[in-house]
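Example 3.2
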Amino acid sequence: MKRTLKSTPATLLMLALIILPCLYCWFNVWALWDPYSNTSDLKVAVYSDDQSVKLNDEKIAIGKDLIANLKKNDGLGWTFVDSKQELNQGVKDGSYYAGIYIPKNFSKDIISFASGKIKKPTLVYSVNQKINAVAPKLTSSGATTLQNTISEEFIGTVSKTITNVLNKSGVEIENNLPMLRRLSSLLVTTDDNRDELQDIMDKVKQANTIVPDLNNKLSEANEMYGYIPQLNTDAQKLVTLNNFLPLADSGGTAVKQLQNKIPEIQSAGTQINTVDTDFSQISNLMDSSITQVNNGINVITSVENVMPEVTEFGKSAQSSVEDVNNNLIPKLQKALPVIKSTVDTGLSMVYNLSKQISTSATNINTLIDKIKENPDNDQVQSQLKTVLQNIADNGAQIGSVAKQVASTLTDLQNTYNQLASQNGKEQTTKLDRPIKLLNNLEPLGNTLATQANYILDNYDNLSTDELQSKLTELATQSNTLADQVTSIQNLGIIDSVSDTISTTQSLLTSASTVLSDLNTSVIPEIPALLNNTKGILQTAQTYLQKYQQQLPAIGNEIHDANTLLNGNMSNIVTGINVANDFYNNDYPNLKKKLATATFFVQYQLPEIENQLSTTLNLINTKTPELEQSLAAANDFAVNDWPQLEKDVHHSAKLLKAGTKDVDLSAIIKLMKADANTESDFFSNPVKLKQDNLYNIPNYGSASAPFYLALCIWVGALLLSSVFTVHFKLNDKEKLRYGFKQQFNGRYLTFFSLNLFQSIAASLGNIFILHAYVQNKVALVLFAMLISFVFISILYSLVQMFGTVGKGLGIIILVLSISGAGGNFPVVLSDGFFRVINPYLPFTYAVNLFREAVGGIYWPNAIKDIVVLLAFGIVFYLMGLLLTEKLKPLINKLHKSAKKSMIIE
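Structure, written as tokens:
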């Protein structure tokens, strides 16, 4: 804090970050203070085409009366236009939010009840939904209010009219007694036949219950008809399958041919069994070869051990004759056969590595074809990388071994030529060509290894065409190397080496008496010869030991193959015979049935589809008419008939009892009742009394809890985005302060700033906006508690996940705006937001602020406080205890993200 206060820009930024979230809260609450107080500015166009009508010589013009009443109403901005066209154009271009059109027959339809042919009057309400989301709801409310007002006036007018008519008609009842008697007779007759009428109604209801089942079956039929295209697609597969029968015929021919190969398959099983049985001898042979190589290394080592001593003695001329004759020459003669076998071993390694490279080159050609067919085949890509690695390893090794063998042959020929020169013999050049070819083999192998490694290193960056080109070039290089090795094989190197070594052994015996020439010419050549020979033997030793380690696995694979083939030989033979039997016996019948099915698909199925389509269209057309008629009859049977039956029975019962129980004077009195009083009762039968439990006087105060919680979260989010959560410490401070001290120190800074934000925002609501708050102290205390919870969540997320944690904070904010039920009930939201509502800290923060604003109900407030504390403590402990453990994973993610060059 001292460092921050010393920096004026940092201090001003900190103060700005305290005030900015408050402005977000205050401006939104102020904007929503009373959004419905200016509804008179919402323009609603009104135009009436209504034409007046006469009822009982009285002129009725309801449309005109409506216009007069609306001119007195200031609930909405009623605008009275001169034509329907002007109304429609104004709504369309946005001049008016909505329009109400009163049709020509409005008054006529209203009084249609008087003629007995009732027709409901219609108000045409048009609205421009595009202008604003809320305005259509307000104008719709105005239109609905207008509709309700008309209905109330209509009911009042009708009841008043009826009452007036009854007043006039009451005195005439006595004159209509004959008609009443006829009516009573009709009622009695109807009552006597109630059972038959009830039976008819029961049958109507029973028929109506069948309609859902009929609709379900019709729906199933329509659904089945919907599968016709899929059926046609599948049917065409039968036709396609029938077209592939020639290929199936070829398969039958292949099975018959395979049956003729059964003896060869059985012979192959016998051969694999022989290899499996004799595999232990191969293992013993490998052990013997390694022993021979070790013995050769020991022989060469023994000669190398005496060379320094012989060289030293050689300086004293004749004094070393005896040591050379008795020590060096016998050991050297003993080493010469080892040199021969070493050269043989080295050449064998060259030949074997060449075969492996040739096999890899063949595999490359096969894999190239597969890549051309499917460049994205991961299995082929993996196989190709393995083959490339084998070529790289074998190419490097063949170059190394070839160079060692060439050096050994060079030293052997030089040694021979020195001895031959001492004894007056002719020098030899028979090893010159093998030496040259072997030396040429080294760059070929190294080049091959370099090319393979290049492809491996750049594999992911090469396009498909580039990869195919490089692989083709590598395969060509592999074939060139294989041809070079073949040329070396044809030279008969071992025979030349054998002759050279045999002659060298005899010359050594003869040359031993010419000590000075031996010391100056021959002995200096021997160390290099021995060293190269030993190098080949050591390489061979490594090579043999490598394959010795692989022998058990190879043996197991051969044994498994032997078990698989010979263990299932009877099943294989049986399977081939069964397949052959199928093609000979069952296949012709299957082929015939498939041809029949194809004929049905091509020629009969289209006609069936056409008939089904015609039938379903007819049923779908007539079913709604049947359903509508049954529904109307059922509606009468269920809703009207029971009451009508009771009324008829009751009326008939009264009539049968006699008119003595009917007081006509009372009826006449009722008919002469006050028309105005009864009209008011019918139009407004119930009064509504509203009782507000928590009276919040305006919409701005009611929305303040949501925006105050949003302000605190946004403030915490701004802090985590602007300020770093990490300290910059020198080496001494890093030793003094551990992670927990750094975590808590920076946490206190963030919490203090967010606390100031929440206090400023809550006090601003109270003293600047003068928002309604029932418990002002509780509001400030709740804001401080929510600040602790929100900063604990966001600070811990940023500590644990860095930039990703900031993104999580934004996601929680976005979800909370709709899921916390801040501005409208969450039960009206999508099911997703109803599910996440209990798990959002916003939910409990907004609810707790509402308690302070409207009046605290402590059971709810305590629950909110407990849940919020749980959120804050859990996230604080997660950040404190898990950040260090997650750091390797988060660092790895950040390192990967930085490769995009857009994320810090």
